User: What shape does this take?
Amino acid sequence: MGQYNQTRIREFVLLGFSRERSTNICLFAVFLSVYLFTLAGNTLIIIAIRVDPRLNTPMYFFLSNLSFLEICYTTSVAPQLLAHLMTSHKIISFHRCMTQLCITMCLGSTEFVLLAAMAYDRYMAVCHPLHYMVIMSRRVCIQFVLLSWTLGFLNGVVQTMFSVHLHFCGYNIINHFACELLALIEIACSDTSPNEISILVAGVIILLIPCLVVILSYVYIISTILHIRSSDGRQRAFSTCTSHLTVVTLCYGTTIFAYMIPKANTSPNQDKIVTVFYCVITPILNPIIYSLRNKEVKAALTKSVRNLIILEKE
Assistant: This one.
């Protein structure tokens, strides 16, 4: 223990993607564009849902919360990533690293539970349409959102508490572009079994159980849709679910690959790519998927943009 205290580090070095300045400049341009588009797209969705009375339904209430979550999630990583791409000193203090870890774990965990709540909402809409608005009341929707944030917050705090007590024996180089949980555990020299157990428990509660809820919901949804006699009715029923199902597949798929695949089967570069996908790419896909696949959202977004243009001209 004495040795650990003497070699306790105060900062980490993030290796990032490349040491070539030209490559980093190109990556900076790409990630900056993606980040700005993510902020603009998700903000427009929130505004459109707020101002359009037709979108005052549980489905769009959850979507507005998801868009807000995506803005927070990508902001927890992107600004620091952009700053480090333009500097040769990719240093982050121990406290900032733990803060980033806590925030990203909280937000990522919240998203998994929220997506499960959205799947249940689609199940009620398709399988029990007559009771949908009664069961999925405003109060119930708020409770689902609060549950998502509570579980996400608890998981983020727990994972951070275990990480704070890790010892690194003076080795502070993280082969990543952010303070990612598995990358930190990889360079620790102390016993990491408590961290691994906490990740396993969180994986079951935060990832696998919500994933099971999503799968069961869509099993019932697809079964119900197949029993609809009208082809137009089947198409309308399934169109309300395709956007959410696409987002769910991308989000759960990348995270399961990152945390459930044995690390011996992956490389640090693969881990970085996967992290980029669910921290940077997935948030930008949310407004694209929902605006392209949903006519109501597309119409509301068009109306919101038109109103903003009119206001600027005035």
